[in-house]
Amino acid sequence: xxxxxxxxxxxxxxxxSTPAAIKVGYGITDTWDDLVRAIKETAPTTVGGxxxxxxxxxxxxxxxxxxxxxxxxxxxDDQALQRARVNxxxxxxxxxxxxxxxxxxxxxxxxxxxxxxxxxSYAARSRVIAxxxxxxxxxxxxxxxxxxxxEVMSDSADCSSRTHLDLSGRQCPSTARGTxxxx
Length: 183
What we know:
Blueprint: E1 23-25, E2 28-29, H1 32-91, H2 93-135, H3 146-158, H4 173-178
Antiparallel strand pairs: 1-2
């Protein structure tokens, strides 16, 4: 910063004249004094403002640094927990495979039981149809006794090992024996 040179048309000296309009000589005014005066006036407030701003920045930096360290620590805890879970799963993989095998066996047994129950249902239905035919009245309900019901149940138990019985073409051997005549 140096001297600012400005030419003045008129020279005013009075109470309302500005300090920048003080004539140094030959129409050149000195603005350097004005700058120094302005700096001296604003310097204390500027230093105070800078100190306050530095304090605020320091506080913000400390707070955000603490938050970052907390997030890093949480992340490390999460990673350690995940590593522990993976290690546990790796150690227990044999037991998980055994459990899966048991579940598959249960599913197979369930499918087999369903097929057997369907076979038993078809066998019982065939026996009921056969009993209706033996009585001679196709449209009426048969008068079954307790012995007939027990026989139907034993016949259905005999046929329970078959899967998907085709009622139109074949019958279970025990059912075919029972339809031959008198009871």
